[in-house]
Specification:
two-stranded antiparallel ribbon; mainly alpha; globular; Farnesyl Diphosphate Synthase
Length: 310
């Protein structure tokens, strides 16, 4: 996981206003999400879907999708349906992850989890509804993009969320709970699939919509893989060091569940060092695009700040 990237070559330019950029992009995503699902009959399922979808969060995955589409010469209009679909899929994973049969959490983003409000039965169906609607939304709403690019996005997202991605990572995560012989390699597999696969799809699919070259897709894929693992390492650290109010969910859950984490292998200081190196490696993939890649550079950098969770 370590390398010798020259940090001085990949520092984020100080002139880029990340807060302003994120605020603007998040507002656009929020408005699009709000319009994406209306409450119709049967009301309860649509209310449950909206409850979690509109519960806030950084909207990192949609923002990354929009950023890479623009980086490759595309427009927000081209990428917004996929950006919304990514948040629907991510929200589904959170609803299901919080269920008693999974991580059994009562709070998410500072609010009661879906099953605590609507019951486990409706929560499961709300997740299912969001997942299926995400693919319908891409197919029905995407404009100014060639059909083959749309099909490629749908295929990539299907792989990212299925047994080859998120679902596979979740299975290994569940199987590893409480086991004393979990290795770092197993932990890497869990996080590269459970959270990393969808994050990578977010970055790459934005570029696919803009008809990026294979070389560029590979660069962006490596960027996403590195920031995804770095985010998870920082997430593990925050689970130990942050409060429930700062996290927006129950603190210390990994320790209570006897889950292997990066700090349990390396300690907090080494975990932070490893995360810093991954971020540097990620930013090195963006150097060829110069100032055009400032949003992606800055998003990578901000993950290392205390109490910033994605």
């Amino acid at each position: 996981m370590t390398s010798t990237t020259d940090h001085s070559r990949v520092m984020t330019p100080p002139t880029f206003d990340l807060v302003g950029y994120l605020t603007g992009q998040q507002a656009k995503v929020e408005a699009a999400l709000d319009q994406s699902i209306a409450v119709i009959y049967p009301q309860k399922i649509y209310e449950a879907m909206r409850y979690s979808l509109m519960a806030g969060g950084k909207r990192l995955r949609p923002v990354l999708c929009l950023a890479t589409c623009e980086l490759m010469g595309g427009t927000l209009e081209m990428a917004m349906p996929t950006a919304c679909a990514l948040e629907m899929i991510h929200t589904m994973s959170l609803i299901h992850d919080d269920l008693p049969a999974m991580d059994n959490d009562d709070y998410r983003r500072g609010k009661l989890t879906n099953h605590k409000v609507y019951g486990e039965d409706i929560a499961i169906l709300a997740g299912d509804g969001l997942l299926s609607y995400a693919f319908e939304f891409i197919a029905a709403q995407t404009v100014q993009v060639a059909p083959q690019q749309v099909l490629q996005v749908i295929a990539r997202l299907g792989r990212a969320v299925g047994a080859a991605g998120l679902v596979g990572g979740q299975v290994v995560d569940l199987e590893s709970e409480g086991k004393p012989d979990v290795t770092v390699e197993t932990l890497n597999f869990i996080h590269r699939h459970k959270t990393g696969a969808l994050l990578e799809a977010s970055v790459v699919c934005g570029a696919v919509l803009a008809n990026a070259t294979e070389v560029d897709l590979q660069r962006l894929s490596r960027y996403a893989q590195n920031i995804g693992l770095a985010f998870q390492i920082i997430d593990d650290v925050l689970d130990i060091t942050a409060t429930q109010e700062e996290l927006g969910k129950t603190a210390g859950k990994d320790l209570q569940a006897q889950k292997a984490t990066y700090p349990s292998f390396w300690g907090i200081e080494e975990s932070q060092r490893q995360a810093s190196q991954l971020i540097a490696d990620a930013k090195a993939e963006l150097v060829a695009w110069g100032e055009k890649a400032q949003p992606l550079m800055a998003i990578a950098t901000i993950s290392l700040l205390a109490n910033i969770r994605f």
